[in-house]
Amino acid sequence: MINSQNTRLRKQAMIPLLILFSLITSAQGAEPPAPPTEFTAEDVPGDAGNAIDVSWKLSVDDEEETKPRKVLRYVISRKVVTGDKKTLEPGTELTVETGGKKYTFQYEKGMQEYELIGETTYSVTQFRDSNCTPDIPYLYRIIAIGQEGLESTPVELSRPIVAQLQWFNLQRQWFAVFVVLICGSVILFIELARRGKKLKVRKIAGLEAITDAVGRATEMGRSCLFVPGIQDINDIQTVAGITVLAQVAETTADYRATLEVPTSRSLVMTTARDTVEAAYLAAGRPDEYNEDDIYYITDEQFGYVASVTGKMVRDKPAACFYMGAFYAESLILAETGNSVGAIQVAGTAMPTQLPFFVAACDFTLIGEEFFAASAYLSRDPQQLGSLKGQDFGKLVGGIVLILGCVIATFAVFEPQTSGKEPFLKTTVNYIKENILGKGGF
After folding, report:
1. Residue 29: its pLDDT value, please?
2. 225, 260, 227: which is closest to 241 by C-alpha?
3. Domains 37-167 and 205-371 share a fold
4. CATH architecture of the domain formed by 37-167
5. Which of 258, 268, 33 is nearest to 154 (CA)?
6. How many CB atoms lie within 10 A of CB 126?
7. Residue 65's pLDDT is what?
8. What angle separates helix 236-255 from helix 266-282, to the nearest 10 degrees?
9. Could you give the CA distance from residue 427 to residue 413 in angstroms, rounded to a whole number?
10. What percentage of the chain exceeds 90 in pLDDT?
11. pLDDT value of position 39
């Protein structure tokens, strides 16, 4: 009994010694990893002069088969090249020559010491320094970090690298071609419209129905209700809605119908008042304009909707127009208007609300029809030309897309010839790397 207790105590006393021995053994056996090789850096082309790409070849100890892995990460540092000067005062002007060019800059404290700018995990061979200053020469250093924080021998660049501002990104030459093509088509169609050329725009039923809706309201002796959405005037859909409001107001002025415009934003109210007043003036009936018919209710979403729907139930307007940005209130407004028997015309670019307007309204302007309303209604040469130019750009984009898909499809079945890559596969690679990628011409 006593012997077994002594044996157990001796084993317990040996445990700390064994742990200490294993730590010493592992510390003695651990070695720093080999450094990476072929460390290079280059200025990022086509940028504003604020980025440099550094790359390297993996350390020989950075291999999948190595267990445990000797390299855990790579640490990249940089410093500013200040020449042979050892001690400098902040603000001192320096001139450093590299790559046959001279660069002048003011010295700041800490430029001469390496500072950590980032790190990557193992098996990574690239790093982008996006915090550079143009026309300042940098020297980069990389260190491989292994187990227990052991560091490899530092590897430095052989010469400094400078980030420079480029005025043009030559990697995006094909993008420039498409921009010039589309913008040129817009200018061409505007010029044709100004010279009297009739530009065909397909009929938009919702806009054609404005005259009929206002005429019906006039015959029934009821009012027209225009809701410009619930967003402020800085929303593009609200601006498009105000454009339609101008045509509606001019039509109501011609027919001497009553037009009411409840708004949920004060700036929208002010803009709507100016728009309606200008429309009545253009129609030759400025005395019939009543600014009290364009009024502000509240910014609160459902408080605004409750007020509008309550007025619809009481006054029973014969024509309701919903033009702008809408959310959950769209179905409430449309169903209420439908229940009072009004002709309803809606327009919005909110995809989630379009189904409700389509289901409950007589006419609905969907997406780009809504934004094209201004050109469609005004027939202004500049707006019509812009609309046709954009359509031409979409046509070009569609043709390029279809052509690329056809080429990529046939490239899969093209037979492989010895000695050179097949023509269609070469074309597909060019499209990917040069037209869609950053290869340029």
Report:
1. 52
2. 227
3. no
4. Sandwich (2.60)
5. 33
6. 9
7. 63
8. 40
9. 14
10. 39
11. 93
> What's the pLDDT band for 25 if we cut at 50, 70, 90?
very low
Q: In terms of Cα–Cα distance, which of 408, 441, 438, 399 is closest to 426?
A: 408
Cis peptide before 317 (omega within 30 of 0): no
By the 8 A CB rule, do 374 and 396 touch? no
Contacts of 335 (CB under 8 A, 6+ apart): 360
What's the average model confidence in pLDDT over 179-188?
88
Residue-level pLDDT at 209: 86
Residue whose C-alpha is closest to residue 373's, from 197, 215, 236, 232: 236
If pLDDT is split at 50, 70 and 90, which confidence band does 370 have? confident
pLDDT, position 28: 47
Residue whose C-alpha is closest to residue 76's, from 19, 120, 15: 120
Extents of the domains making up the chain: 37-167, 171-196+383-435, 205-371
DSSP 159-221: S-EE----SS-GGGHHHHHHHHHHHHHHHHHHHHHHTTPPPP----HHHHHHHHHHHHHHHHT
- Is the domain covering 205-371 a CATH 2.30.30 domain? no
